[in-house]
Each structure stands twice: as structure tokens, then as C-alpha cells.
Amino acid sequence: MTINQLNNNLKKSMTYDNRIEMARHEKITKNTGMKIYFAHPYSSWESGTNENTNGLIRRYLPKGTNFNEISENQLQIIQDKLNNRPRKIIGYKTPLEMINIELKLVA
């Protein structure tokens, strides 16, 4: 599922680090209607879920990975694993379970 496939009621906001990959954040806001916030430099506690998720992604794609060599299928497998991994912050539910709960609430 992509961000554009989500129900508008579920698109609330996104928080990012101040890095070059977010240079076009206005385009994301325009395309999704989501507000984008940026964490202050050296303030990782402002985006704890991001930091945790980055660590989980690095288990599959370590620093130095050439992303030109990663297939869409490989990315989908990693996405599926992460979306089906229980998270303490959401009561040991998976992100997929939480999105399904949210979808039922807004239906």
C-alpha cells in the first residue's frame, strides 16, 4: 500500500530529519495533503519511530548499500516483513494490524 492509497482520514502528518532526501517536501504535501514536520538536528527523540524504523531497515539494507541493485521485489519483501513485525509502541500489534483497525474506524 502506498501513501496515496490511504484514506485521507489516515494521512495526518509525517516527521523527517533535515536531510537532502526531503528537499522536495512541498511536493509530498501537495500530492498527499499531509503536513510535514522536521526534527531538530541532533534531536533523535523528536522522531523516535523514524529512528527505530531506520534501524530495522538497516538490518536488511546496511549503510553503503547500492540501491540501484535492489529490486522492487526485494523492497516489497522488506516492507512486508516490517509491516508484519510487532511493535512495542503500539501494544505489540503490527503496523498492518493498526492500519486495518484505523480503516475500520473511518469506514
Describe this structure in a few short sentences:
Helices cover 42% and strands 7% of the residues. It has helices spanning 25-32, 48-60, 72-83, 95-106, and strands spanning 13-16, 35-38. The mean pLDDT is 83.
How does this model look, in words?
By secondary structure, this protein is mainly alpha-helical. It has one domain: Nucleotidyltransferase, domain 5, CATH 3.30.420.10. The protein has four helices and two strands; from the N terminus they run βαβααα. It has helices at residues 25-32, 48-60, 72-83, 95-106; strands at 13-16, 35-38. Strands 1-2 form a two-stranded parallel ribbon. The longest helix has 13 residues, at 48-60. It is globular, with a radius of gyration of 15 Å. It starts with 12 loop residues before the first strand and ends with a helix. The model has no long low-confidence stretch (mean pLDDT 83). GO terms for molecular function: nucleic acid binding; transposase activity. InterPro entries: Integrase_cat-core (IPR001584), RNaseH-like_sf (IPR012337), RNaseH_sf (IPR036397), Transposase-Integrase (IPR051917), Transposase_IS30-like (IPR053392). It comes from Polaribacter filamentus.
